[in-house]
Amino acid sequence: MKTLFLIPARGGSKGIPGKNIKPLNGKPLIYYAIDAAREIANGDDDICVSTDDDDIANVVSEYGLDVPFMRPDELARDNSGTYEVIMHALDYYKSQGREYDVVVLLQPTSPMRRAKHVTEAMELYTPDCDMVVSVCQARSNPYYVMFSENADGYLQNIMEGKFTRRQDCPQVWEYNGAVYIMNVNSLRQKSLSQFTKRKKYVMSAMDSIDLDTPDDWDYAEFIMSRKKGKN
To answer: Which parts of the chain are beta strand (E)?
Structure first.
């Protein structure tokens, strides 16, 4: 099973400026994703950082990993889709005579994700599924806490009358953004939103920390420094 480890790293972040190369607990954020990929990949040739940003490319190169191409501007905008970024990378390698069976997408914004998480998720993958995706248990169960407004302007539970106790509600999962293991044949036939054969890989809330805001960053720094102090 030929596997491409793809790390998407666009420049121009607004929530946390320069976040992909900003030092987190002593090293650039993107290095955490590279480290995880390097523990599993057959070699650096199967690890691709897709970026449009020269500074990111330089920091990655300083870590000894070649950046095979620069992402075109039309795939580096705020509204650019992940699917298009993945297909751009796959098509690039196909043009070089290298085809892959599986893409493992590792977003830099999940620094608590480690190689063991990726390996465990990969063990759940089979060629008959579209994707294995990492999840964590949803903080709030929509069966219990989601409401709509009725014609009289009052809130009513969407599942009114069906569940009267939170404990009785079905368990609900949310994507945590850490690991996506995708079937290339599926990708070439349909978009990510059209995937129906999805398997979950469950991660803890702590390992699911995703860096979107400065508060997220501060929390990750705190957790990492606390772990370091215990070692």
So the answer is: 3-8, 23-24, 27-28, 47-50, 102-105, 131-137, 147-149, 155-157, 173-183, 198-202
Better-scored residue on pLDDT, 195 or 142 = 195
Q: Max alpha carbon distance in the chain (Å)? A: 63
- Decide: 168 and 100 in contact? Cβ < 8 Å: no
Q: pLDDT digits over 183-201, tens only?
A: 999 999 999 999 999 999 9
Question: Burial code of 154-167, b = ≥16 C-beta within 10 A, e = fewer?
Answer: eeeeeeeeeeeeee
Please state, rounded to an integer, the average pLDDT across all residues of the chain. Answer: 91
Beta bridge partners of 5: 47, 104
pLDDT band at 144 (very low <50, low <70, confident <90, very high): low
Tell me which architecture the domain covering 3-136+174-230 has in CATH. Answer: Alpha-Beta Complex (3.90)
Of 45, 69, 38, 52, whose CA–CA distance to 10 is shortest?
A: 52
- Cα Rg, the chain, nearest whole Å: 19
The whole-model pTM stands at: 0.89
Are 172 and 135 in contact by the 8 Å Cβ rule? The answer is: no
